[in-house]
Amino acid sequence: xxxxxxxxxxxxxxxxxxxxxxxxxxxxxxxxxxxxxxxxxxxxxxxxxxxxxxxxxxxxxxxxxxxxxxxxxxxxxxxxxxxxxxxxxxxxxxxxxxxxxxxxxxxxxxxxxxxxxxxxxxxxxxxxxxxxxxxxxxxxxxxxxxxxxxxxxxxxxxxxxxxxxxxxxxxxxxxxxxxxxxxxxxxxxxxxxx
Length: 194
Known about the structure:
Layout: E1 2-5, H1 14-29, H2 43-46, H3 51-68, H4 75-84, E2 88-92, H5 101-112, E3 120-122, H6 128-135, E4 139-142, H7 145-153, E5 157-161, E6 175-178, H8 181-192
Parallel strand pairs: 1-2, 1-4, 2-3, 4-5, 5-6
C-alpha cells in the first residue's frame, strides 16, 4: 500500500505545542481573550488575531515549537513496521510554508531519529488532495478535519487522527476516525486482509 502521512499532529505533537503557546501568547503578550473557536486546529482560525498578531506569534514561537515538539507515542515503531512490511510512505505536509528553514531542520530531526524512511517528501503542501491523486495514495493519515473531508470525498481512504478538541467527522467507507498509532496499525492490517 502507498500511505500518505502528514507531519504536524500526526508524527510530531507540534499541534499540542501550538495550542499551549497560542494560549500563552494571547494571555501574556496580547493581554486579551481572543479565542473564537477552540475546535479549530490552526491557531490562525482559533483566535481573532490581526495579521500583526499572527506574525508576532510566528516570530516568537514558531521555531521554538518545532524544536520542542516530540514524536507522538508509537509513531516511530508503527511507521518502521509499515516500511519493513513493504508499504511505501509519502510525507505530505504544509511544513515549510511559513518558514523554509523548517524543511532542513525537520529533515535533520528525522535523520537523527532514524526516521528517514519516506519514499517521497512533499513540503509546503496545503492542497494535499492533488498530491494524493498524483501519487495514487491508497490511504492518507492527517489530523486536520478539512483535509480529511476533502481527501475522503475524493474516494481515497483517509484516517482522521483525532487527538485534541476538533470537529467530529462521520465515518464512512473512505473515512476512519482513530486516536493513536496502535489503532492506525490495526486498521491498516484490517485493510490488507479485505
